[in-house]
Design goal:
The structure holds two protein chains of two kinds. By secondary structure, chain A is mostly helical. Chain A has two domains: about 35 residues, no CATH class; about 180 residues, MetI-like fold, CATH 1.10.3720.10. Chain A is built from 14 helices and four strands. In chain A, helix 5 crosses helix 11. Chain A is globular, with a radius of gyration of 25 Å. The N terminus of chain A is likely disordered. By secondary structure, chain B is α/β, with parallel strands linked by helices. Chain B has 14 helices and eleven strands. In chain B, strand 1, helix 2 and strand 2 form a beta-alpha-beta unit. The longest helix of chain B is centred in the N-terminal third of the chain and has 18 residues. The radius of gyration of chain B is 21 Å and the shape is globular. Chain B starts with a helix and ends with a helix. Classes of the chains: A mainly alpha, B alpha/beta. At the A-B interface, helix 5 and helix 13 of A face helix 3, helix 8, strand 6 and helix 14 of B.
Chain lengths: ~300, ~350
């Protein structure tokens, strides 16, 4: 990267010649301090021996990964079989995050469309309104959601009062509550990128499609979606990835009973499990999965553009 | 303009006033366990700037200190067995009784305790019990057994909140099964594992900081809870009764400990001495509704607190302390807890 700045030639880059290393320093320092060092530490710790109740002993071991993939019984004295528990937690997290992402897309796309089709002078006001709730701390918003939907909360009181239900819906401490919490937490991350791509959409394309007797749905599917797809993909990634690692929603809305990846990892560092290498290993595995998915996506994107 | 100048100078004095404080005191404490007025009183009396962070279980206190917080706090308030663990981990500093002029105020029964022989690192804070409370609007049957939590009757299933702490939850489960604490016996541990695994489906949630709130709001009809926290829930309007189950319940004592590498050791000792004043110990009791381990608090107590059913167990009931297990046994209990939570 540092080389690229000097080889591009031209008068402007001549000014930077010889200074490129210095000029690149802030960027590399950022990457080094905030990306490489923490991730490297995480990977190293995942191969260390755990110390009783938190901490590590500097001895290499694969015990953390062994614990993740193999079941040796409650007390570790049985012949190993495949451990489904953690795979199950990962699967559950992917499922919860996936449902939240789809819900965000279903609500977020029409919302973004609505905003992008308002008069330009009012659009920023609409966007402003979308972001207002997100000035409040995530913890407060999650607790508020809990107060809203719990059995004795206003939602159930209202439904009981209208007679729509005869007993509380029992929403709190369920997977649905967790999905709702994730959906609510990350909705703007879906709306904003989609808005950005819909705003650039040339509406004469829709008119052209209509002139050619395309139905609304065909237009949406064959004309609009391909154009705004980058925004949708960006939104999905921005919602899915943080949802995958969330631990506030499962803790507060799921009653701390339904572990997701985030709560599993948190328990290793803050809870009574105190198993740092295992927490690091679970994080490393999670990071690997996310990286793999993003790489596959990026490769498909490149293939698509070569066509 | 005059007003502006006035405000500016006031702000200036406020700022310099804070800067002039004798020193600092950094407390690591349980949530909702000390009245702000008492902290303010200490800050004013000794001209010390007080800061406080909170935790919600003995285990998370230990985890946090191990994760590098040791050296940033002066005092913490661990329960009995955690005092012993912290001491074994080398996380406590010691002091001489002569360094606390009020040392003699410690009640005789708490002056020499097994978890800190001779009180070299700790003083009593409050003591109480851990059991469970039942909403009497929902359930009117007998609540004299831990079966209410671990094998609940039909009408209470799915309406139970359990403390999110392995030490207390697994100890109550052991009491229910009648097995000893810290048992290395695999058959007994498997039975313990099976009990909590089977009971989990009847539990609505795990949570310690929410334990009072879910009872007051009615989200839970049964809550494993600490005695004083239950009394507070009751005074906030929950129609609940605190149980003293026949299988036994947990008795604990929380202690103010002097942490190793305390940045403000002098102020920490001043604070500990301050908490041994009967009036101040009583202020904590009136707030948290447990029982102080300090002589002479009686005249300062509110009658409702002193006579609360939660703090006055019926005679003949068995209260036990949570034991600190040896490491090779503790890992087995940790395995059961992790297995339960996953």
């Amino acid at each position: 990267m540092a080389a690229g700045a000097t080889t591009s030639g031209g008068t402007v880059s001549n000014i930077y010649k010889g200074n490129s290393a210095k000029l690149m320093f802030p960027a590399w320092a950022m990457i080094g301090f905030f990306l490489l060092a923490p991730v490297g530490m995480m990977i190293v710790y995942s191969f260390l021996t755990k110390e009783f109740r938190g901490g590590v002993i500097w001895e290499f071991t694969l015990a953390a990964y062994d614990q993740f993939f193999f079941d040796r019984g409650l007390f570790g004295d049985e012949p190993p079989s495949i451990e489904w528990t953690y795979i199950g937690i990962f699967w559950r997290s992917i499922w919860q995050a996936g449902v939240a992402t789809i819900a965000c897309l279903l609500i977020g796309f029409p919302t973004a469309w609505f905003i992008a089709t308002r008069r330009p002078s009012t659009r920023s006001a609409w966007l402003f309104m979308i972001t207002i709730p997100y000035w409040v701390n995530l913890l407060i918003r999650t607790v508020s959601m809990k107060f809203l939907i719990r059995d004795t909360g206003p939602l159930n009181e209202f439904l009981l009062w209208t007679g729509a239900v005869s007993e509380p819906l029992g929403l709190i401490n369920t997977n649905f509550a967790v999905q709702l919490g994730l959906f609510y937490s990350y909705l703007p991350f879906m709306v904003l990128p989609i808005y950005a791509s819909v705003e650039r959409y040339d509406f004469s394309l829709s008119e052209a499609a209509a002139d050619l007797y395309s139905s609304i749905w065909t237009t949406l599917w064959l004309v609009i979606l391909p154009v705004v797809k980058p925004g949708i993909v960006a939104g999905c990634i921005l919602v899915f990835v943080p949802s995958l690692g969330a631990f506030l929603a499962p803790d507060l809305l799921g009653g701390a009973k339904t572990f997701m990846i985030g709560s599993l990892i948190e328990e290793q560092f803050k809870g009574s499990a105190g198993n740092w290498p295992f927490g690091a290993a679970a994080s490393t595995i999670l990071l690997s999965i996310v990286m793999a998915v993003l790489l596959i996506y990026a490769r498909n994107q490149n293939k698509g553009s070569e066509r | 303009m005059k007003k502006l100048l006035m405000t500016a100078s006031l702000a200036f004095f406020a700022l310099t006033g804070a800067a002039q404080a004798e020193g600092k005191l950094s407390i690591y404490h349980w949530f909702e366990y000390i009245p702000q007025e008492l902290l303010d009183k200490f800050a004013k009396e000794y001209d010390v700037e007080v800061t406080m962070d909170t935790y919600d279980s003995n285990e998370s206190l230990l985890a946090s200190l191990k994760a590098g917080k040791l050296g940033s706090y002066d005092v913490a308030v661990p329960g009995d067995y955690m005092v012993k663990i912290l001491n074994n981990e080398g996380m406590l500093d010691t002091f001489e009784p002569s360094e606390l002029s009020n040392f003699g105020n410690i009640e005789d029964q708490w002056a020499d305790v097994s978890f800190d022989p001779g009180r070299k690192s700790s003083i009593p804070y409050q003591w109480g019990s851990t059991s469970f409370s039942v909403n009497r609007d929902v359930f009117s049957g007998p609540i004299d057994s831990l079966a209410i939590v671990f094998d609940p009757p039909e009408e209470l299933k799915g309406k139970i909140n359990v403390l999110d702490t392995s030490g207390e939850t697994l100890t109550l489960a052991s009491l229910y099964l009648g097995i000893p604490q810290c048992t290395p016996d695999k058959a007994q541990l498997k039975a313990l594992n099976a009990l909590v695994q089977g009971a989990k489906q009847h539990w609505a949630s795990f949570g310690s900081d929410i334990a009072k709130d879910v009872l007051v709001s009615g989200d839970a009809a049964v809550g494993m809870i600490w005695s004083g926290f239950s009394a507070k829930a009751r005074s906030e309007g929950a129609n609940i009764e605190y149980a003293f189950p026949k299988e036994g319940y947990i008795v604990w004592m929380d202690n103010v400990v002097l942490l190793k590498d305390a940045p403000n050791r002098e102020n920490a000792l001043k604070f500990m001495n301050f908490l041994l004043e009967p009036e101040n110990a009583a202020a904590v009791t009136n707030y948290a509704q447990y029982t102080a381990g300090v002589k002479g608090v009686a005249p300062f107590l509110e009658p409702a607190v002193a006579n609360s059913p939660e703090s006055n167990p019926p005679a003949g009931q068995k209260g036990v302390f949570v034991e600190a297990c040896p490491q090779e046994v503790q890992v087995l209990y940790d395995a059961i807890w992790t297995n339960l939570k996953k």
